[in-house]
Write a structure and sequence with these properties.
The protein has 372 residues and is of the alpha/beta class. The chain has helices at 2-23, 75-80, 125-128, 356-363; strands at 90-94, 97-102, 105-110, 135-138, 144-145, 158-160, 167-168, 181-187, 189-190, 203-208, 212-213, 226-229, 235-236, 249-250, 258-259, 272-274, 281-282, 295-297, 303-304, 317-319, 326-327, 337-340, 345-347, 353-355, 368-371. It has 4 helices and 25 strands. Strands 11-13-15-17-19-21 form a 6-stranded parallel sheet, with no helix packed on it. It has a 5-stranded mixed sheet with strand order 1-2-3-4-6. The longest helix has 22 residues, at 2-23.
Length: 372
């Protein structure tokens, strides 16, 4: 009985609880404020009209072509590019020779000889107009480079000389302090002081049929290292290569006969001189001051003048051939031994002819003579 009452009470309590929950509020009603605002319908964007004649864009301009500088063009290109109708800096430098200047390059075209110019009076037209050529290109047909033509052009670095040029006038490149090398393939005559005081000059090549290198040809060229001479040359003139302290290589022409006074004086880097059989005379002081000279060959020598080997302190011995008759230039050098055929007789400065043994005993007692 008690249990039934408890069950009834529990059920009643549950009914009351669910009743209260049900009475707690009504279900929420729709709130118009919470609804999203109505949107206007969006029309699709109209399509772009199709152009019946579309414009094709122009192609991009090609990169501009920069003309080559005359300083880097070949000789042929430089000469071909000359237009005397448009070049304003131009003139004549011979009866049939014409010059033009543009962008650091001086060109010479035409035929025949160049005029003669001077160091002070009558200068070349490019000097008179104070032009500064860096390069000179001479066309085939010109036959000479006139005296003092490029005297003291301190900007000049390079010169192109064709086969037709056979004459190189005196002082032509004197004091061209920037000139580094020079080649003349077909020389017949060269003047004096052509390269005097060319302080940057390193190499010189002279070909052709000339028979003489003139006096003071490359005098006082402190950076000259290499000289190549034509085998046709028979004479190297006085002081031709005087005071070229870096000169270490020079071919002695096969037909060389005479080396004149002081020709190689002061060439302190020269170590070896091998003269051909044709060389018979060494004039006064020819190799004086060549302090590195240690080997000399003179197979056909006849006369060695005074002071030829003065101050050649590295030269310790020399062999003289049977052809020698005068030998004055061995003193004040480093020579300690001389080899000479027993048949040789030598003339003293006073004209007295002595046997080699008697000569060295009287004139050079400090040198050991070895008879062969």
């Amino acid at each position: 009985m008690l249990t039934a009452k408890r069950i009834c009470a529990l059920l009643l309590a549950l009914v009351m609880v669910f009743g209260l929950v049900a009475c707690g509020g009504e279900a929420p009603k729709d709130n118009p404020a919470n609804d999203p605002a109505p949107q206007d319908p969006v029309d699709p964007a109209p399509a772009d009209p199709v152009d019946p004649n579309p414009i094709t864009p122009a192609p991009a301009d090609p990169a501009p072509i920069i003309p080559a500088s005359p300083l880097t063009m070949s000789d042929e290109e430089v000469l071909k590019a000359i237009n005397y109708d448009t070049v304003t800096t131009r003139g004549m430098c011979g009866d049939n020779l014409y010059w033009a200047y543009k962008d650091g390059v001086l060109t010479i075209t035409g035929t025949g000889e160049m005029y003669t110019y001077g160091r002070g009076k009558d200068p070349s037209p490019w000097r008179e107009q104070e032009l500064d050529p860096i390069r000179v290109v001479i066309g085939e047909g010109a036959t000479s480079i006139g005296p003092c033509a490029f005297y003291q052009i301190e900007t000049l670095e390079a010169v192109s000389v064709p086969q037709s040029v056979t004459n190189l006038g005196f002082g032509a490149f004197e004091k061209c302090s920037a000139l580094k090398s020079f080649t003349m393939p077909n020389a017949k005559e060269v003047g004096t002081k052509v390269f005097w005081k060319c302080t940057s000059l390193e190499s010189v090549t002279i070909g052709g049929t000339l028979d003489r290198i003139a006096d003071n040809f490359c005098n006082d060229c402190p950076n000259l290292k290499t000289v190549t001479l034509s085998d046709s040359i028979t004479t190297i003139g006085a002081s031709a290569f005087h005071t070229c302290p870096k000169l270490s290589s020079i071919n002695m022409p096969k037909n060389l006969q005479v080396i004149q006074s002081n020709a190689f004086a002061g060439c302190t880097s020269l170590t070896k001189v091998n003269l051909p059989q044709s060389t018979t005379q060494l004039w006064m002081g020819a190799f004086t001051g060549c302090t590195s000279l240690s080997e000399v060959t003179v197979p056909g020598i006849v006369r060695i003048a005074e002071y030829v080997f003065q101050d050649c302190t590295a030269l310790k011995e020399i062999t003289l051939p049977a052809t020698v008759t005068e030998c004055y230039g061995l003193g004040n050098s480093g020579i300690e031994k001389v080899y000479v055929p027993a048949s040789v007789s030598l003339e003293t400065i006073s004209g007295l002819v002595l046997s080699a043994e008697a000569y060295f005993a009287e004139v050079h007692p400090e040198i050991t003579l070895i008879l062969q």
